[in-house]
Design goal:
CATH architecture: 3-Layer(aba) Sandwich
Shape: globular
Number of helices: 8
Distance between the termini: 26 Å
Strand content: 15-25%
Radius of gyration: 19 Å
Number of domains: 1
CATH topology: NADH Oxidase
Length: 198
């Protein structure tokens, strides 16, 4: 109950939630989270709602030593979609692998555990886990951003990350220190997204 939590904690939580914002990976610089901080950030994911306790999601940390291989996959995935892509476009695609000091891939398993639990529930659970991580990273003073794109569906990317048949690559999570803090965008009002069933 809110009165058991206390107004001070509610105030801190409100500030944390409402001050978090997305930072593009190219604006995230070193230092990234330390090993201890990263473990705390990943640990926050465990509090996500998880119908049936399936643990339908996992995260893959992209080590510095693997960035060049990921860059090759990004470039090859672009050329597979567009064989006429210019060299500078391929370079731009490859460069994305080197942005942000900490890079993770979020993966959801469509069939792990109880098959009666729909993929939509598994994706919602993954989203909650990711948001917990973003908020914990923000609490540590780091910026964060999510990126997706057509390369996530590439067989080359699936092979690189050893994804199983039922696994889906949802997004990349970038963490790091914010280069230039931007003003917080205007948030939608509750009335913009709430209706009442009478």
């Amino acid at each position: 109950m809110p009165d058991e939590i206390g107004p001070e904690l509610i105030s801190l939580s409100t500030e944390l939630i409402h001050s978090r914002q997305t930072t593009l990976p190219k604006r995230l610089l070193a230092p990234g989270p330390s090993e201890k901080e990263l473990q705390a950030i990943l640990g926050a994911a465990a509090s996500a709602p998880d119908h049936g306790q399936l643990l339908p999601w996992r995260f893959i940390l992209v080590a510095e030593t693997a960035r060049a291989r990921l860059a090759d996959v990004f470039g090859a995935a672009l050329l597979a979609r567009d064989p006429l892509a210019m060299p500078e476009q391929v370079s731009q695609a490859q460069e994305k692998a080197f942005r942000a000091p900490c890079l993770l891939l979020a993966v959801v398993d469509e069939f792990k555990g109880d098959p009666a639990i729909d993929l939509s529930e598994r994706i919602i659970s993954t989203g909650c886990a990711v948001q917990n991580m973003l908020l914990m990273a923000h609490a540590y003073g780091f910026g964060s951003g999510l990126t997706s794109g057509k390369a996530l569906k590439s067989n080359l990317l699936r092979q690189l990350f050893s994804l199983q048949t039922a696994e889906h690559a949802l997004c990349f999570i970038s963490l790091g220190s914010v280069q230039n803090q931007r003003p917080i965008r205007v948030r939608p009002k509750v009335t913009d997204y709430l209706t009442v069933l009478q």
